[in-house]
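Researcher: Structure for this, please.
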Amino acid sequence: MFFKQTLEKQLDNWIADLRENANLPVSLRLWNGAEYPLGQFDKPEVTLTVREAAALPLLLTPSLDNLGEAYVQGKIDFEGRLADIIKVGYGFSAAATRRAGGALYKVAQHFSHTRQQDRESIQYHYDVSNDFYQLWLDPNMVYSCAYFENGDEDLATAQIKKIDHILTKIRLQPGQTLLDIGCGWGALVLRAAQKFGARCVGITLSQNQFDLATERVRAAGLSDRIEIRLQDYRDTTGIFDRITSVGMFEHVGKDNLPGYFGRIRELLADDGFAMNHGITSPDPDNGATPMDGAEFMDRYVFPQGELPHIGLVLRTLQQGGLEAFDVELLRRHYARTLHHWADNFEARGDTIRSMVGEKKYRIWRVYLAGCAHAFETEKMSIYQVVCHKSGLQADSLPWSRRYIYDQPIGGND
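Model: Predicted structure, token format:
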């Protein structure tokens, strides 16, 4: 009885605090039918249903981790537009951070990233099934930030433009060799061989990606120009004129970045160019995502993922023996990309739920929409960094960025 009264008192205080300081357009509905407005509104944008009393401790300290956990476990449910639901989740978390007087960033976790651990983490995330990803990605299955050159492109067009933007930035020429670290389902190496005339090696740790990428290369008649390997970047050998890494270095680990960039340097020809395209933290001290969510991501989405600040990226890149030549922020582009993915996911929600089950459906639903909001509000960011070997004459480098735009991106093949 005492515990119940204490919990009810905490709930009353929490509701009063939210009404006074957060004013969220939310109606809170309890398992016993009781409803409470959490702000002043004519009609709530979101209805939050708490399905069992056991969920209240998670709700009363509503970090993104706790809210995500309660939603995935079916202890709470939301009604409303997905974008509004995500905003409300951040509103709860911000209010909890304010009440606790906590810092905006938490100390980020560090992982050891052995070859076995990295292989297991990659396969956990990417080997859900190829059919699952095909339901909400573009037809080429590009699972990374698109490039909206004019802002009005559809997703498929913007993904082709992203690949061309990368390959143009690194000045890929016919007959050159290209290594794509974390090649996904092969879209970049296929484009590099077909449009730019390159000879390519793509590596991945995902069995599903390896199988489908190999089949796509064979179907395109490019097996003599493209090799797909099931391989760790640390075990790759050879010398390549160009190297790309798109959406992969988030799995490397902050402590391993000097070695990662050093490995790229070892694999890169003396006059070569490389590009690293990856998600970063906005925290200069390399903390976890604002208002957290890191534990949820590590448990359910990206095991052992670590996001460095762009400052750490540039410092460790230099420590690895590379010099940054061009740096471009694409945060707005990723927010739009994720909105496209989330909309596709919602439109095919019934099919996805029947394919992967309720729990995994909820994980990916909240993950995609939550990340869209995070990039929109600079709680996560993303950069493309073009680099070359340090300490070498740069006579072949263009004097301006005009070379990137002289030809229309994604133009005629």
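Researcher: Any notable elements?
Model: The domain at 115-391+400-405 is CATH 3.40.50.150 (Rossmann fold). The mean pLDDT is 88.
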